[in-house]
Fold this sequence. Notes:
By secondary structure, this protein is of the alpha/beta class. It contains 21 helices and 10 strands. The chain has an 8-stranded parallel barrel with strand order 1-2-3-4-5-6-7-8, surrounded by 6 helices. α9 links the parallel β6 (172-175) and β7 (217-220). The longest helix is centred in the C-terminal third of the chain and has 25 residues, at 453-477. The radius of gyration is 31 Å and the shape is globular. The termini are far apart.
Amino acid sequence: xxxxxxxxxxxxxxxxxxxxxxxxxDQSELAWRLLSRRHGAELCYTPMFHAQVFVRDVNYRRENxxxxxxxxxxxxxxxxCANDPEVFxxxxxxxxxxxxxxxxxxxxxxxxxxxxxxxxxxxDEWELLEKMIKxxxxxxxxxxxxxxxxxPEIEKTVKYAKMLEKAxxxxxxxxxxxxxxxxxxxxxxSWEHIKAVSLYLSLSLSLTGREAVNIPVFANxxxxxxxxVQRCMEETGVxxxxxxxxxxxxxxxxxxRSPPVWEMAEEYLEVVQKHPPCSLSFVRAHLFKLWHHTxxxxxxxxxxxxxxxxxxxxxxxxxxxxxxxxxEIAKGETDTSRSxxxxxxxxxxxxxxxxxPKEPGSENTxxxxxxxxxxxxxxxxxxxxxxxxxxxxKKKARNPNKNFCLEQKPKYIKCxxxxxxxxxxxxxxxxxxxxxxxxxxxxxxxxxxxxxFKTKALKIQxxxxxxxxxxxxxxxxxxxxxPDQPVAQAVA
Length: 492
């Protein structure tokens, strides 16, 4: 059977999916995908997998994809980050039987992507990307798709999309932010960029009047409510809407509902129990997202949620949060001041809106002239608890003798070889790293660093001598047989 492409792939294999759960590192695992599908999601992506690790480590493959095979979890697209065509193809070939398409991540803007040279940091290497997608389109039995971020220039973004389509990309997701829009600088996604790409790639007729090659486009960015989904599709002309942050705070987003948080939390924990194993860190992260607004009020349970070591403990903290919210409801405590100015009470699933980026230099400008110099005054205090940050106050509580004053801290003597602080009791007057090399080379001990190379060598030598003496005594006790005497006669 010929591999479906473009709109045929979207209509047939993906069943015309419009509501899509984004690929999220450690957050779009099987349990979360199944929960999202129950509440309106029509297509889900796996978390982003590292292609090189996927090829090298069989346990990584089993834990992240193979063990999550579930008939309910389709259609499904597996996403990889990669920068080597051969490695990408090897990983895709190992994954293609467990999904409906392979997606190449060209949108991750995080520092880890910069260090690993993948994601959005490949968007200027068009020749490499063209080769990766072209080879994948030729060798894979499933379609190849891409998720990208935009360039500041709309024209360059359209050319970028055009290049990916020509190389063999069968579906394109456009996140309407540049690679620099992240963290505190996230800002608003540009639907104008998405619209320009969608209009170009969705043209049904070419200039010659014949049908042109065209592919469906998904939009990503600024999706917080179902009304945003409908408005984005109308304004950009895309064929589907992908949600990440909005979905994490409200899995029922695509249903157009904003249920109580505990309803989604309990249902998610139920799915986790039904489809093990699920990493504890994944579950904890999801509960932190769901209960985000409530945990700003109940700080004690926030700390408890971070400490518990099993699923049952997480479920118990979630239950306590539910009880506290229900007590507030019973008392009629629904004032906006307690909800931090949120449009709905904090126990309702709703998006987290990041504060807009500050103007350059504004974070250092005191709002009140009388407060000017307050920061400097705190630095000049004698380390009283009130002048310390919350993190340092926690450290001070654990260790009352801890000193945060740099001037009063003892000056460490540097290692002669590398400049790191040397061990006070090191026999070589070196840091531990250099001491380990020196002690190994000299077969010596360093009690100050807990190194016992000489002691271990002596033990091994003593054991060998003892073993040799034992073998010698056994040989002496054994009867000797003359070379010319038959064995049978000697035994008799």
